[in-house]
Amino acid sequence: MQRQASLRGALIVLFIVILILSFGILAYEAPPHLPILLSAIVVALYAALIKIPFDTLEKQIVSSVSYGVIPILILLMIGILIGLWLLGGTVQTITYYGLQVLSPTFF
Asked: Among 9, 31, 89, 104, which is most exposed with the fewest C-beta within 10 angstroms?
């Protein structure tokens, strides 16, 4: 039978996750991948402890990640556009002509 997480248990897990992320990134200067993975393992262990079925957990993970996909794709498209502008010389051209217009005598 599936139990619901208690407030106390959820706060303890949240505190552990914050500790893992803080010490991993700030104290040990590790890349964030490992602390995030360790945090996910802690949360998954807590979910297994309170007997949440894996399919329910998987559905919640997919629904949570789906909210962040659109902004990530927008940022990816902006990065691609800026990269193409750099390769095509657009940024350099705008900089050159902008510096011609904004000479020190302009001010």
From this structure: 104
- What's the domain range around 31? 1-52
Same domain membership, residue 2 and residue 27: yes
How far is residue 52's CA from residue 44's CA, in Å, rounded to a whole number?
A: 9
- Give me the residue label for tokens 């302009």: 106
Distance CA 55, CA 46 (A): 15
pTM of the predicted model, to two decimals? 0.67
For every residue of 18-85, which 3-state class applies, written as one string?
HHHHHHHHHHCCCCCHHHHHHHHHHHHHHHHHCCCCHHHHHHHHHHHHHHHHHHHHHHHHHHHHHHHH
pLDDT tens digits for range 10-28: 999 999 999 999 999 999 9
d(CA 2, CA 64): 20
